[in-house]
Amino acid sequence: MADGKFGTAINCIDGRTQNPVSQWIKENYSVDYVDTVTEPGPDKVLLEVNIEKIEQIKSKLLISIKAHNSSLIVIAGHHDCAGNPVLKEEHLTQIKKSINMIKSWNFPVKVVGVWVNDQWKVEQIQE
């Protein structure tokens, strides 16, 4: 079992989002470490029909939950996403749907959605 308190971020591969999301999670949920599962445009990926990719994400989340006792999953979408180049409103819809999908997996965790805006600041979407 790992020392310290963990949270888990499902984040974009875009390096501009990594620090802001991890920092936000640490500050808002008092965690010491943030495990990160990355995909280009993860808010879109979770809603696609690619079962294999979704199962890979699920499997990585389970490792974070079981090995690090993570009690939080944050799904992030962001401004200027190359992997999911849609308007902010569409991202917000996808993030909310992704939250519901992750909750449907019945992991013993809190699930939160965030948006990283054009200033690279994190805004909570829904808890």
What does this structure look like?
The chain contains 4 helices and 5 strands. With 127 residues, it is of the alpha/beta class. The protein has a single domain, classed as Beta-carbonic Anhydrase, Chain A (3-Layer(aba) Sandwich). A hairpin with a 5-residue loop joins β4 and β5. The model has no long low-confidence stretch (mean pLDDT 95).
Count helical runs: 4
Distance between the termini: 27 Å
Secondary-structure element string: EHEHHEHEE
What's the architecture, going by CATH? 3-Layer(aba) Sandwich
Strand content: 15-25%
Looking at CATH, the homologous superfamily is Carbonic anhydrase
Strand order of the largest sheet: 2-1-3-4-5
CATH class: Alpha Beta
CATH topology label: Beta-carbonic Anhydrase, Chain A
**Count of discrete structural domains:** 1
Helix % is: 40-55%
Instruction: Identify low-pLDDT runs.
Output: none
The average pLDDT score comes to 95
Overall shape: it is globular
What class would the helix/strand composition place it in? alpha/beta
| DSSP strand tally | 5
